[in-house]
Amino acid sequence: MMNIFRWWWGILLMFLFLGVLRMFLPLPFMNEVLIFSIYTMGCNFLLGRVGFISFGQPAYLAVGAYATAFYLFYFGTNAYIGILLGILAGIVVSAAIGPLFVRLRSDYFALVNLALAVIMFYLFEKVLAGITHGDNGLWFLTRMSNTPVLNLGKHSDFFIFVFILAMAIWAFYKYLDDSVYGACCLATKINEDKLKFLGYDSFKIRWLAFIIANTTTALAGSLYAVYFGFVSPDFTSPHRAADPVVVTILGGVGTLYGPIVGAIAYTGMKDLVSGYIANWELFIGLLLVIIMLAGEKGIWGTLEPLLAKIIFRKRTGSGLSKNGDESL
Amino acid sequence: MDTQLLISGVIFGLSIGSIFFLLAIGLSLCFGLMRIISLDQLLYYSVGAYLTYSVCAVTGNAWIGVLVGMAVAGIVSFIVERFVFLRIYERDITFTMVASFGILFAGIGVIKYIWGLAPRPVPIPIEMQTTIFGTEIPVYRLIVVAISLLVYGGIWLFLNRTITGKAIRAGIEDIDHVEGLGINVYRLFTVTFIIAGTLSGLAGGLHAPLIMVDPVMGLEVLPFVFMVVIIGGLGSIKGTLVSAFLVGQVISIGSLIYAPLAQMAPFAIMLLILLIKPTGLYGSKLLKR
Question: Touching check for B278 and chain A: CB below 8 Å?
């Protein structure tokens, strides 16, 4: 009972924080943070739980984005169906290539995944240029019809949609972490032999984790597609391959709040710093090196013990929820 | 297919392969010996290229530029090793990978700050053309191939004929035994890192006249260099040479046959090789650790 309470409390607190941020920060920034955090959650799961360093996430991002884009550009106008198709494509693609990939371990997995991202890039840019329009990309912003309940073409409605979606996904990962399956995932990373000895099939566990994580990434891709109303091969560019890994580590590997904190920090720094000077890479790069040298825990990993100390000291509960109601 | 086109394609592939070899050899040694994925090699590559550009603009001689670039790249790699990698060798491979990525990013930022965003051209040091089987071939490309073969010979001699080199080779196979013999492995790491950085600088300097020098040039060759390392097998010098030339040929011949496939085909080959033989062509029992 206590556990369930803290479960929801954690989710609500995080999303109240995001809701408060929404009041002060511009809408496009918040939208990008939310989509980026969905993008990163999958990677965080792979890296923190299963021990896969995935440098190929852009490939799955592009799968989702292009599945949505094909539907919206060629066939229909309903953005909801587009997003569903994106998820479906993510499941199909990652289930198909999963068995080949999950046999490999850490560094090799990273490299083969990177190779996949590059293959996808050239596939979408050159080989399928007839359908994808190559570098010009597909524009369909005006083709999307108004959707019921929330009109995804409007940025303010889109924010609410992504907000709820991110919350659901976050809760889902939280649930996974607490379940037996989550423990099994962690066990494949730490001691595979023992897991096999206990009678679990480590291959299937990793395969499922691979599918779950990459479908989340594909979902982020289709959200990007709907949000911008545009897809181009840039989505899968190998230059951006490290982004999710970087954000994951920036936020704190394996922690639940990590992806969101990392996404806020990364997007924020990119926007803020690039507003003043042209090269934000210098700052991000130095920051990464410093974080790696300092304690490999990331921002949230460092903050969490501090926050826990503060919260547990004055943990009355009522004060917090009252503040929360006001801010929503 | 046209014979002349084919010959020039092969020469082009060889020269590209040579550049990849020089870059990949350092990455492969670092990978094999220290278990770090040293993405920052691509930074030393850019440093070499930019210094070649600058020195060439001042003195008018690209060869001096290449030498200066090599030296500076070596020094930068030594500093980076001292201040960053020495502190994180013990940690998980993810952290060294991300740290090296951070160094690469920060380095790109510094390069943008110093040289600006615009691509810079470097004049080809030797304009001469020679004729092979009735095909005009730029001599510079042949020199690049010759230099990389010389470097291969030099590295081979170093690894097989000197004590330090033998220790490095042994370290790639089993680092614990080497340490047990009383050899300071951290000194070996430093030596390997400086060699890798210097060779990356050389690759940058030699590649500069063939392309435009721009801040993200490192990121552009990154996937190909990775691929060369993986196809060849970690820590294997011969494997790296073979796979570098293989990848170079696939890119250049592939672009003659069907342009879009040229960039993709090497990756498909890499995927195939990895799925059949996860250690690469010449990799030994390096996967188990």
Answer: yes
